[in-house]
């Protein structure tokens, strides 16, 4: 994944919660755009979780960015 592809989703307005899927099977939640730091070289990002854990990620290992509905904005299924 390129930094441009990554930025297009995390800079989207309004922001939607993302799940970062990695080649090793890990899934990293990205709760807010403020929890992300991009490194000037464009290949590495740092993602913080609300509990303070940090993930330093090589974008070449990101297989997919998945948008996740927020709890407040997810529509109810019709009955």
Structure description:
The structure is a single chain. By secondary structure, this protein is mostly beta strands. The chain has a single domain, classed as Roll (SH3 type barrels). It is built from one helix and six strands, in the order H-E-E-E-E-E-E. The protein has one helix at 3-10, and strands at 18-22, 27-30, 36-38, 44-48, 54-58, 62-67. The chain has a three-stranded antiparallel beta sheet with strand order 2-1-6, with helices on one face. Strand 1 (18-22) and strand 2 (27-30) form a beta hairpin. It is globular.
Domains (count): 1
- The string of secondary-structure elements, in order, is HEEEEEE
Sum up the overall morphology in one term.
Answer: globular
Q: If helices are DSSP runs of H or I spanning 4 or more residues, what is the number of helices?
A: 1
Show unreliable segments: 72-79
**Category from helices, strands and their pairing:** mainly beta
Main sheet specs? 3 strands, antiparallel
């Amino acid at each position: 994944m390129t930094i441009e592809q990554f930025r297009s989703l995390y800079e989207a307005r309004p922001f939607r919660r993302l799940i970062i899927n990695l080649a090793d099977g890990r899934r990293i939640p990205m709760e807010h755009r403020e929890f992300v730091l991009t490194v000037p070289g464009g290949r590495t990002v740092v993602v913080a979780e609300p509990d303070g854990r940090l993930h330093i990620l090589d974008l070449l290992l990101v297989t997919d960015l998945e948008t996740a509905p927020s709890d407040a904005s997810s529509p109810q299924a019709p009955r």
